[in-house]
Amino acid sequence: MTVNRADWRKSSRSGAGNNNCVEVAAGGDSVLVRDSQDRAGPVLAIGRDSWESLMRGLKSGCTWRGDAG
């Protein structure tokens, strides 16, 4: 699958005409993430396990700020 042909989605909470968000798409073993205002720009590929862990944390209200080291 190429990035251009991916089925990109953004949150329904972003509202009509609001491009101030990220879009995500399935990319094989990864979840692809891009800026909705720069669709031709860089794309992050995040492993599915890492993505699922991030989503679980966000849904549970967990936030983290700081140095990973």
Question: Would you kindly provide a written description of the structure presented here, covering whatever features stand out?
Answer:
The chain is 17% helix and 23% strand. The model has no long low-confidence stretch (mean pLDDT 83). It is globular, with a radius of gyration of 13 Å. It is an alpha+beta fold and 69 residues long.
List the helices and strands and how they pair.
Layout: E1 22-27, E2 30-35, E3 44-47, H1 48-59
Antiparallel strand pairs: 1-2, 2-3
Spatial strand sequence of the major β-sheet:
1-2-3
Q: State the distance separating the first and last CA atoms.
A: 35 Å
Rounded mean pLDDT is 83
Percent helix:
10-25%
**Rg result:** 13 Å
Number of strands: 3
Profile the largest sheet: 3 strands, antiparallel
- What structural category arises from helix and sheet content? alpha+beta
Question: Number of helical segments?
Answer: 1
The parts where pLDDT drops under 50 for at least 5 residues are none
What percent strand? 15-25%
Broad shape: globular
Order of helices and strands: EEEH
